[in-house]
């Protein structure tokens, strides 16, 4: 049982006894213990990305922090920015070209990456929109670009692994994945119609989980492990597309309000997956509340910390992987 299990039994809202990302680093005894290691985090100009980077900075690792708006990221993280140990990299996840440029910039500075945290994302885009490469905006931003980013950094992740220290990939997913699995190969972009903001978001978040599961299957034996996580409900800029009336209705739900976390608490499971001793040599699991998620029912409940029947699906995971390789223009090496 997780050491944090009791703290999650009766939540009392943001700032309660549930752990923060910084507390996880301290509890794991990782302060200053990752000097010489390299951590890459996407989406560090707001929300969870900021708190993830801030907590992991005390490990002593070198941080490569990506953001579409680098100036915003630098301003938000000025308190941890340290020349030679904190590098800010521009990356627009709506563009494969930008992803490739960001990966190249990182690999010009390091040939090893110990931890990759795919944190950036968008949610509930109201209408059907597309990336610069012509893919449905949420699927393209949340999944495809992170998939490409992983593939480009994969040699550095493999190079960093040692018998005593395996590399890790953490994909920030969401309980919203429970609403929907992934579409058919010819319908990832809702070519057949039926676009819905939440169904689209759910597909992209299921894709985050499937990608992590498949990384573990393909590369775990080579020392690269992957997990996916649900951070919990947090009031961040991610909710900017949700209508104000819907947000107001949510805030009238007392139980829901009590379940909400602060950004510092929301980043805790990410950090636990990234540096926790529990995940040193394994992966392929969906985590929530600083614990491995339990099997729940298949009710479309976006507040549940449990996983659904489609959360693990080897056939779909493999299909998405093969399709993603083709979509981003790579040749699979398996």
TrEMBL record:
Keywords: NADP, Oxidoreductase. SUPFAM superfamilies: NAD(P)-binding Rossmann-fold domains. InterPro entries: NAD(P)-bd_dom_sf, SDR_fam. Residues 1-20 are annotated as: Disordered. It holds the Pfam family adh_short. Signal peptide: none annotated. GO terms for molecular function: oxidoreductase activity. Belongs to the short-chain dehydrogenases/reductases (SDR) family. This is Uncharacterized protein. It comes from Penicillium arizonense. The lineage of its organism: Eukaryota, Fungi, Dikarya, Ascomycota, Pezizomycotina.
